[in-house]
Amino acid sequence: MNTPTTLLITAPPPQLLADIARRRPDWHVVPLGEQLPEYPVGGHLWGFIDWLCPTMSGLEMCRRLREAEPTRRSHLTLVLDEADAETRRRALQAGADDYIIGPLDASRLIERVDCGASDDRPTRQRFTNGPVTIDVAAHQVRVNGAVVALRPNEFQLLAHFMENPDQVFSRTALIDRLGKDEEALDERTVDVWVGRLRRALLAHGAPDPLRTVRSMGYVLDSI
């Protein structure tokens, strides 16, 4: 049984809605306004947030979605007018998982979602490294038995590292592993993802298993 997909889109134009409905009729689209979803949305949840929303900035919308219980685990993409270093930094600090240069169209949106969804695995897989355990199928991480909430990018990174311990991966390879567009993402974005992952694990009492290899990338050392 396929997991349902729900899209949260700020002020989606009618043509975009029509194109999504024609190409992915099983997807559910929720236009985002000032009122956010009040109840948890099942399945895969993707948010595409304009840099300037009708009633607030895209940065504020990202913050609200990340803080609200029904949407905090969604994958948030900020749709930027331009991708200078300062704009990218502000997008990630506001809680976005990544960003894309607008205008948004159905082909790019579907490609982004399909790349993320293709990482789902039909069989149950568990990996353990010291006190850290990850259940890929259940999308759950535990440290010393306590559940750790991770954003989608950080979860995928941890799953990849734990499946391939003691191997160095470049930033470019990690962007490719997450199904991202290398041309749209700065390699330093990977440093933000790794930093978030490290802080989440350390906050739950795990030793930092991720090691930075100068001029090469990152490796997860076996504990």
CATH class of the largest domain: Alpha Beta
Rg value: 17 Å
**Numbering strands along the chain, what is their spatial order in the largest sheet?**
2-1-3-4-5
Structural class: alpha/beta
The span between the termini is 36 Å
Features:
single chain, 223 residues, alpha/beta, Rossmann fold, Arc Repressor Mutant, subunit A, 2 domains, 4-stranded antiparallel sheet, 7 helices, 11 strands
What's the arrangement of secondary structure elements?
Layout: E1 5-10, H1 14-23, E2 28-32, E3 44-50, H2 58-67, E4 75-80, H3 85-93, E5 98-101, H4 106-117, E6 126-129, E7 132-135, E8 140-143, E9 146-148, H5 152-163, H6 171-177, H7 188-203, E10 210-213, E11 217-220
Helix pairs in contact: 5-7
